[in-house]
Write a structure and sequence with these properties.
This protein is mostly beta strands. Helix content is 4%, strand content 38%. The chain is globular.
């Protein structure tokens, strides 16, 4: 894809700016994402109210608004809001990254990751996500993992642990995360310490790490393709499919190149921490095949990619990601995780003056774009989109809900 002209949106990472207390001021023409629903067409005379089309959420803010359901659970500002299905009771979890107790990044810094839960999700888009309770449990939102920021917790100096995805199966909840060593790495370096998988056997109350960690930049493995994961889900064939890529949560890792790889593992092996049992989707001896004799091959590339998400929705594999170069959230689909993917389709843009963004919803300073696994269907996705404004202590720093996204 080409790189259109656009505002300076990626020169500094959102979190390095938040930490440093300096950043990009909002322009006079900056329009906040629409908070609330896009109005449905009015029904004609005599049309029963029950058959009217629902009003889809088109930028409903899920936090950073005083008095909202997130603040009632102790979360003021937060980003990511990665959704997952809580299989054991049919509820939904949302995992946030850097979080504060009050709106506009004020009050106590809660840490990362942080989790809010929801009893029921309306995938019609008729009502926005409303949070019902917070984790760890029995009170207000707080950091899930037991580690300290900006210190050495036994693996090397780390700034924060940022969640990339979450999944629950077989009575255990898993969060894959990246430990960030620096939010301002030199050009060509990703700034990570390591990546890991934490798990909870009480559905999010307490967490522990698997002993194995994938080394990152400051542990001597810069640009590891195991930096950021997305759990696509357990396929009907019984395998857990996982996509992964280089860490680019800073959005500054120009060496990222948009490269994504694919591997799979039996759920029982994953639970046991037997990660060496994975099978890799690789181009080997002139053909694509599942193998353990070669590392995964790159299946997609082009442009830098920040956060990404892959989910199996009603038999179709759907992918979304923040395209740093295109300054948009893009989507793709495939009938199988190891099949050919459709071309990227911009869905939500930071700058709608670019020709291929005309008519798209505009969210300046956007990133993220996580697919809700409870989406209505593969032609009507719900996406969780993050927004920041480049300055610490000023709104917005939040998660927005978009429904009816057709990839």
């Amino acid at each position: 894809m080409s790189t259109p002209s656009q505002p300076d949106h990626g020169g500094l990472s959102r979190r390095s700016v938040l930490r440093a207390g300096a950043g990009l001021p909002l322009g006079a023409g900056l329009l906040g994402a629409a908070a609330g629903s896009a109005a449905a067409a009015p029904a004609g005379p005599g049309t029963p109210r029950a058959v009217r089309a629902p009003m889809l959420q088109s930028g409903a803010a899920l936090c950073d608004t005083p008095g909202d359901s997130a603040s009632a659970q102790g979360l003021g500002s937060g980003d990511l809001g990665i959704p997952y299905f809580r299989q054991h009771d049919g509820s939904w979890g949302y995992v946030f990254g850097d979080s504060w107790a009050q709106a506009a990044q004020q009050g106590t810094y809660l840490g990362s990751p942080v989790m809010l839960n929801q009893a029921n999700f309306d995938n019609s888009g008729g009502s926005p996500i409303s949070f019902s309770w917070a984790m760890p449990a029995g009170g207000q939102a707080n950091q899930l993992f037991n580690y300290t920021h900006q210190t050495d917790n036994g693996y090397g100096w780390e700034f924060s642990r940022i969640p990339n995805d979450c999944i629950e199966f077989g009575g255990r909840t898993y969060i894959q995360y990246t430990s960030v060593a620096t939010w301002a790495p030199p050009a060509g370096y990703d700034g990570s310490l390591m990546s890991g998988v934490a798990y909870s056997d009480d559905y999010g109350v307490t967490w522990q790490d698997y002993s194995y960690h994938w080394p990152g930049d400051t542990q001597g493995t810069n640009q590891s393709l195991y930096g950021m994961w997305s759990f696509a889900g357990i396929d009907p064939d019984g395998w857990l499919y996982i996509f992964s890529k280089r860490w680019n949560g800073t959005h500054r890792n120009t060496a990222d190149g948009g490269a994504i790889q694919l591997f799979r593992i039996q759920p029982a092996d994953f639970r046991a921490g037997n990660f060496g049992a994975q099978q890799n989707w690789a181009y080997l001896n002139g053909s694509w095949q599942w193998t353990q004799s070669a590392p995964p091959s790159i299946i997609l590339s082009g442009n830098n990619i920040g956060e990404f998400s892959v989910k199996l929705i009603n038999g179709t594999y759907c992918m979304s990601y923040f395209d740093v170069n295109d300054y948009s959230i893009c989507t793709r689909t495939a009938p199988r995780p190891d099949a050919v993917w459709t071309a990227p389709k911009p869905q939500i843009a930071g700058n709608t003056t670019v020709p291929n963004h005309w008519g798209l919803p505009q969210v300046p300073f956007l990133y993220g774009g996580y697919i809700h696994p409870g989406s209505a269907n593969a032609n009507s996705l719900t996406l969780m989109v993050s927004q920041w404004n480049g300055q610490q202590g000023q709104s917005p720093y939040r998660v927005l809900q978009y429904d009816g996204i057709n990839p």
